[in-house]
Structures are given as structure tokens and as C-alpha cells.
Amino acid sequence: MSSPQPAGQHTVRRHNSALVLNAIADPSGHSRAEIAARTGLTKATVSSLVDRMIGANLVVEGAAAVRPGPGRRGTALYLAPDGPHGLGVEIGVDYLATCLIDLTGEVRARWLQPVDNRSLSPARVLSRVAKAVKTALAEAERMGVRVGGMGVAVPGLVESATGILRVAPNLGWREVDVRGELRRRAGLDDIPVLVGNEANFAALAELWQGTGPRDFVHVSGEIGIGAGIVVDGGLFEGVYGFGGEIGHMMVDPRGPECACGSRGCLERVAGQEEILRQAGVLDDRVPEELVADLLDRLAKRDRKALAATRSAAKSLGVALSGVVNLLDLPTVVLGGTYARLAPWLWEPLRAELTQRVVSSEWSPVEVIASTLGAEAAVHGAAGSAVRAILADPDPYVTAVLA
């Protein structure tokens, strides 16, 4: 085994660059002197690193920083709004979504294409994705901004070590190198690409809003059902990256067969299509029209719509109680279509959790609705690309200034 080596100049600069940019990311704005005080670095080191980041358009100078007492006020530093953007892609079962997010997390552009990807081969779907990516890259160029990275959200098991999509039951995909295929089809050789599970990206987007809990399970209800688990402000993916597959938890051993090969899975009895089917509104219309019809019937207290939603809530409560009992999470965040159905899900879901969660007498489970809804996953994918730059800016700066 080789012995540890001392940190070189580049390693130290890389570490210090991250420290400085993290301090600048505070939206209130800080001067070079204040950043030096916050990080413990010398003013000369901070100034050198800041100059590099300004040169790479990661940082901009603003108005003089507010400073109490006498003395010259320094210039406040901020993340550059026209700095590198994150490109987010979500390959949904029945849609394709893309968006561009800036360094501050603001969505600068978004696109949504309804399409039933179950009827298409991986090659055809990825060709569509590549076209959507090229459209987003062209828009970024028109806006005069760089794309610094891309995140791709997929509805299946993504292996952490390789980024390979091992299986996506609702798409019928197995062993697909999404990253490699998109690099080749969209010409992304110089753009970092991260592939991940859509529910995990959705949970991260919820976390990064900064207004909610730091410990929760985010459950997104679409055609499939996925869960992203956040513990102490960090995503819990499991050993191989396969954690959170709540949609394939068995809730009815005699229930219908599932695309995963099992029977009675949660998504087969409480997924979007099953709710629509039981409510009597499932037909050939696009999903958005179907869900709008369901919401209208619920608002009018249609008997079948209410019964379908209540049945889904009870099944969801069975599965989530198992998650909460195992992981001791205090909060459930309803995402995707569930966020829109929340007013009709809350009462039966809370009742089920109260009955089944052993600790509910002392720590009742809070159930809240995501404010991002169905857009959470694509936002999280784009946000992951941005946060990768913020967490380790030196490689990006070096590449831009080379």
C-alpha cells in the first residue's frame, strides 16, 4: 500500500477555491476581507482566487458591502447570474422535460414534451432526448451563457459506481448507458453528465429550497412511484444507489402483476394510472388533461374520484409506515401528482400513518406537499450540475481560463 502524499499546490488551491465560493454563495454579499475572515485564508489568497473566479464568470462584483464603523467599505461579491448554467433532463414514462438553471438556482428556461416513452425503444427515446438537449444548448448560447454540467433523471435503478441504468421497469429498459449514449448523440464531450434516479433528484430539489425539513422521505406519484430519502441534509441512496424503490414495496400479496415481475406493488394499486382508472377518467387524453379532469371531479366531490383517491392514500400509508418505522423519519413530502392530490390524500394518509407507525404517539409524522410538484426531478437534475461546480469550482475555472 502506498503511503499518503503531501497535498500539492493544485490540491490546496482546489480546496481553498471551494471554501471561498461557498462563502460567496451567501446571497447577502461579502467583501474579500469578510471572506478572508470567514474562511481563515489570507486576504492575498482570497483576492487571487476571487480574481480567477471572476475571470471564469463564476463571480461578479456588486455594490460596496455594508460595514459598520469607520474605514473603507469593500466591494461585495456574488455568484454570477450569467455564469455557468446547469442543464436538467428528466426522462419520464409519459413525458420528457428539460430546463436550464443558473448558479443561484433560478430556472431560466424550461421545456416539456408529452410522449409515451413505453412504446419506444431506448435508442428512439435517447434520440429525442439528444434533440431536446441540443435545443437547450442552443438556447443557452442565445442567452450568452455556458452550460457547465448536465443532470439526467431516469425512472429506474442507477448504479452509483458506474452511472449505468440497470433497470427501469415502467420503460422496459435494462442495462442502458444513458450517459454514454447522450454524450455520443448530443456531442457532450466537454460537459460533465450525471445520471440519477428521478426520485432522488426530486428529493434534492426539495432540500435545496432551504425552507423545509432536513430529514424526510419525498414520495413522487406518477405512473411509477419513487422515494428519495434525506437524512440530516444528505441523500441516502443505499450501498449501490438502489435505495428508495418504494413503488415496488408489496402492499397486496394478491394484487395485480407489476412490470418489475412481482405482484401487488404500491405503484400498481396507488400509482397515477390506477387512481385515474378507479376514478373512471382514464382514456386516450394526455396525462395533464386526465389529471385536470380528476382534480375537477374531486373538487365537485365525485364519489368514484374520492373513493379512488382514498384507496390510494391508504395503500400509500401502508408503504410509508414501513419506511418511517424502519428509518424514523419525521416528515413525508408528497411530490409529483400526489402534491396536486394532497388535499384529498392528507386525511386518510395521516390516519393510516397514525395507526401503523409505532412512534406516532410521541412523534407524529408530518405530511406536507411539495411546492415543486412534477417539476422537482428535472430541477434537481439541473441543480446537481450547478452544485457540482459550486462544490469544486477549480476544475471548471481551470478549463475556462486555459
TrEMBL record:
Listed Pfam families: MarR_2, ROK
Domain HTH marR-type residue range list: 18-61
Membrane spanning stretches: none
Superkingdom classification of source: Bacteria
MF terms in GO: DNA-binding transcription factor activity
InterPro entries registered for this protein in UniProt: ATPase_NBD, HTH_MarR-typ, ROK, WH-like_DNA-bd_sf, WH_DNA-bd_sf
Family membership: Belongs to the ROK (NagC/XylR) family.
Protein name: ROK family transcriptional regulator
